[in-house]
Amino acid sequence: MTGRALALLQDAGPGRNGRWALLALCVLAAWLGLEQLSAQVWFLPAGLRLAMLWLTPTRRWGWLGAAEILAQATKSAVLGYPLVTFTFLAVCVAPWLIYAAVVYLLRGPRPAPPPDSPTRMLLLLLAGLLGAAGVSPLLWMFLVTYPMSTADSLASMFAFMYGDLIGQIVLAPLLVAAVHGSFRRPQRASLLRDLGLVLIGALGVFLVLQAYEDLAMYVLLLAFAPLFFLSFRHGWEGGALATALLAAVMQALVQTGLLTVNVTMLQLVLAVVGGGALVLGAASTALRRSHEVLAERHQELAAKTTELEMLAAELGQVGQRLARLEEQGQRELASELEYELGHAIHALGTRISLAFRDVRDEQGTRLLESLREQVREIQDSLRRALRQLRPPQLDTHGLQQALESGPLHEMLDDSGVVFEPTFDGPVDGLDEDARTTVYRICQAAVREAVRLEMVRRFALHLEVKPRDDGTRVVALALDLEFSPYVQHVPPLQLVPAIKDRALAMQGQYLLEPLVHGHRHSVRFVAA
Questions:
Q1: Which of 98, 288, 296, 516 has CA atoms 20 to 30 A from the CA of 201?
Q2: Alpha helices in 80-215 (DSSP H)
Q3: CATH number at residue 154
Q4: Residue 497 and residue 436 share a domain
Q5: pLDDT digits (tens, 9 = 90+) for 288-329
Q6: Which tens digit of pLDDT belongs to each residue from 394-409?
Q7: Which domain holds residue 139?
Q8: pTM of the model
Q9: CA angle 15, 18, 21 (to 5 degrees)
């Protein structure tokens, strides 16, 4: 029901004149009924006027203006007042025009959203305040017929303004909340309980004031202070409902004579406390909504994080499979090269050695000696290449010996680089993937050191720490120390081969500057 009412009120399209005519009749009847309920404390039709202008687009304001003017004309005709007079125009027509102008300036031509933030609530209250301030001089000018002093004239204007303002604070937010369906919430039971407590407390204060009227300046504010508590707990909707009920109780007590406190004081306190409670409730609603949105974003972020973790695990597995395929390819390539080229070169060397028996002259002997030396160099180069592809020590003697005295040590030694390896923990207890990863990372760092041609010292520190879950934390630090005579140190640049191997093991790769060198640090968890 509330959804259809809101859709009708905020419909700016053409047509539907029959529905709007029926709505105008309902507004007319409501205006007349609220006017009968109005008294010295409030003027409730001002709240109806503000709420309807706030909820409807400017295209439909003609229906609202016609409904209110007809209601005013009906009241004037019943009371016997003439209709075609300046007084009727100033008192019955001009107030609606002033309110419409203020709402248009503050809100614009389109319907405003619910006042569920401090800014929107302040705009609604400011529209009502400016409208009441603009209407009160007209009402004083045409309704007050006897002469007054300046002070009495200002007091009369403020009395008119406070009547409209209390009617707006009491009725306008309540109507906006009802049309937007803001009371359909699971916290309705707690809202009713808190409303009961607030009304009981206010009635207690009003009874004290009935017995001791002089205490009004001391305890009157206590009757309205619980509005802040209710607005904080239940938002601006709870504040609007509590303000309306508390004002209704106050009006009933004033009319029955059970509350004899000065009406202006009651209006002023209700206006200040009620407006503050509504703004606080709007702030509480906005904060609660932001928390809900933040919780939803956290859930979405957690889901995305889980998805990314799954993708990272899959990519890590793919990287490990690629690394295994690469190692398998290098192993097979080394086997094929050794089988094909190694045997052929060995056979060639054997034939050259046999050819020495048939050669008698010195020139032929020198030629064969040169060929045999070249064959030895080819065999040595092939052996080095095969050890680079897959060092035998890595499979036969373990990772530590392959790093200490394997091909990497020979490459650094041939380049004149001092090699200083250190090991901590069960290095040779690593699985095949971890051993291969560590070796290939060290091989990439050694190639980088040889390529730079300014490295004089290569320090390797490998640490393996077992954990309680059976895995091992592998920490590898590779220090490349440059010659002190180098003027321009090369910039920090990640080595792609090291990065790829670290990512394949879902590890971390950091490149840090040293005093005169670079440090490549890799850390990962091995099975």
A1: 288
A2: 86-88, 94-107, 118-143, 150-179, 188-211
A3: 1.10.1760
A4: yes
A5: 888 989 999 999 999 998 898 888 778 777 777 776 677 666
A6: 767 788 888 888 888 8
A7: 1-182
A8: 0.66
A9: 110
